[in-house]
TrEMBL record:
Full protein name: Endoglucanase-1
Key words, A-Z: Carbohydrate metabolism, Glycosidase, Hydrolase, Membrane, Polysaccharide degradation, Transmembrane, Transmembrane helix
UniProt family annotation: Belongs to the glycosyl hydrolase 12 (cellulase H) family.
Residues passing through the membrane, by range: 6-25
Length: 310
C-alpha cells in the first residue's frame, strides 16, 4: 500500500533503514488520518530511472512478487576513481508479465584495479526478493524457480555476452545468486551474521573472480536443465561457511528450480553445511563488479523468482 514511497527515495541510507523509516512515517500519517505523501500514477507508462548512489533501496510498487534493487557499491567511496549507475524500468500500472516477474534493470560501471592486496570487489549490484517471502524454513521451501536472461558487454548493444570482448577489456565480474542461511531466523537475513552463505554463479569473467574454496577443488557436480554446476566450499574472512555452485560455462539464459542444489548440500551433510533445520533469510541476484579497462553494461531484461513453500 505505502511501499511505493521508497520509489521516490529521498534518503540515501542503507536499504533496511530507508524502508523502515519511510514505512514508519507513512503508517503514522495513515494512523492520524493524513493523506499519503504521494499518489502513484496508474497509467500504462514505462519509466526508466537512473540511480548512481553508493547504496540505495529502490522498491517499485507491484501487484505481484516484491523486489528491492540496490546499486550497492559497498567497496567504493564517493570520490574514489570509478563509477556505477543502475537503471530500473518500472511500469506505472504495477503489473508485470507474470506475478513473479521483476522490473527490468541494468548497471553500467567501470572501476580501476586496486593495487597491492586492496579489496577488488567494488559493488554487488543486485535485486533482492522482498515482501515477507523470507525467512522461510528450508524444510518448507519446495521450489526456487528461476527464469533469467542477462547480458554483459563493453558496448551498449543488446546481444549476448561477448566473452572475447570482455577478456580483451580485462573485465572482472561475476553474475550470481546470493543466499544466506542460519538456524536463527533473524540472523538468516543478516549477510554479516548468518552462518551460511550459499551462492549460485552463472558466470565468472576474469581471473579475480574466484569462489571461496575454489583452490581446494570441486566437492560435487550437478546438472540443472542443461547447465552444469560445480560446488565449492570454504570459510570466508568473516568466518562464514560459503558454498558456491558455479556454472562450468556462462549460463545467460537459465530456467530451472534451484531446490536440487540445496538438496544436494543436505545430502552431502558435511560439517559447515546448512541443514533442513535452518532458515533461508535472504535471496538476491546480481553482479559482483571487480574492475575493467572499459565501461561494462550488465543488463537483466528478464527475471522471475518464484519461491514456493508448503
Ligand atoms: C502494464 O503496462 C505495461 C507497459 O506499458 C503493459 O505492457 C501491460 O500490458 C500493462 N498491463 C496491464 C494489466 O495493464
Ligand atoms: C538509463 O536511463 C536513462 C534515463 O534515466 C537513459 O537516458 C539512459 O539512456 C539509460 N542508460 C542506459 C545505458 O540504458
Ligand atoms: C502466482 O500465480 C501462481 C499461479 O497462478 C500461484 O500459484 C502463485 O502462488 C502466485 N504467486 C504469487 C507470489 O502471487
Ligand atoms: C553506453 O551508455 C552509457 C550510458 O548511457 C554512456 O555513458 C556510454 O558512453 C555508452 N557507451 C558506448 C560505448 O556507447
Ligand atoms: C528448461 O529450459 C527450457 C529452455 O531453456 C525451458 O523451456 C524449460 O521450461 C526449462 N525446464 C524447467 C524444468 O524449468
Amino acid at each position: 500500500m505505502f511501499r511505493w514511497l521508497v520509489n521516490f527515495g529521498f534518503l540515501a541510507l542503507p536499504i533496511a533503514a530507508t524502508i523502515g523509516i519511510l514505512l514508519g512515517i507513512q503508517s503514522q500519517r495513515e494512523a492520524s488520518g493524513q493523506p499519503p505523501l504521494f499518489v502513484p500514477k496508474l497509467d500504462n507508462k514505462v519509466v526508466e530511472t537512473t540511480y548512481c548512489q553508493k547504496s540505495f533501496g529502490v522498491h517499485p510498487e507491484t501487484k505481484g512478487q516484491e523486489y528491492t534493487l540496490n546499486p550497492n557499491q559497498w567497496g567504493w567511496t564517493q570520490g574514489d576513481a570509478g563509477f556505477l549507475c543502475m537503471n530500473v524500468t518500472t511500469f506505472n500500472n504495477q503489473t508485470y508479465a507474470t506475478n513473479t516477474t521483476a522490473p527490468e534493470w541494468k548497471i553500467f560501471w567501470q572501476y580501476p584495479q586496486a593495487t597491492g592486496d586492496g579489496n577488488n570487489v567494488h559493488a554487488f549490484s543486485n535485486i533482492m526478493v522482498d515482501g515477507g517471502v523470507f525467512p522461510a524454513g528450508l524444510k518448507s521451501v519446495s521450489k526456487i524457480g528461476i527464469d533469467v536472461t542477462w547480458t554483459m558487454r563493453t558496448d551498449n548493444d543488446t546481444g549476448p555476452a561477448d566473452a572475447v570482448a570482455l577478456a580483451a577489456a580485462n573485465v572482472n565480474a561475476n553474475v550470481a545468486i546470493d543466499m544466506f542461511m542460519d538456524s536463527d531466523k533473524s540472523k538468516a537475513g543478516d549477510s554479516a551474521k548468518a552462518t551460511y552463505e550459499v551462492m549460485v554463479w552463472f558466470a565468472a569473467y576474469g581471473g579475480s573472480t574466484h569462489t571461496v574454496g575454489q583452490d581446494v577443488g570441486v566437492v560435487a557436480t550437478l546438472n540443472l536443465n542443461g547447465t552444469t554446476f560445480d560446488l565449492y566450499y570454504g570459510v570466508n574472512l568473516n568466518k562464514q561457511n560459503v558454498l558456491t555452485w558455479k556454472a562450468t560455462a556462462p549460463a545467460q539464459d537459465f530456467h530451472g528450480d534451484l531446490r536440487p542444489l540445496i538438496d544436494e548440500i543436505f545430502k552431502l551433510g558435511r560439517t559447515g553445511y546448512p541443514t533442513e533445520a535452518d532458515y533461508l533469510g535472504y535471496f538476491s541476484f546480481g553482479s559482483e563488479t571487480y574492475f575493467s579497462d572499459k565501461p561494462v553494461t550488465f543488463s537483466v531484461p528478464s527475471l522471475s523468482v518464484d519461491v514456493r513453500t508448503n
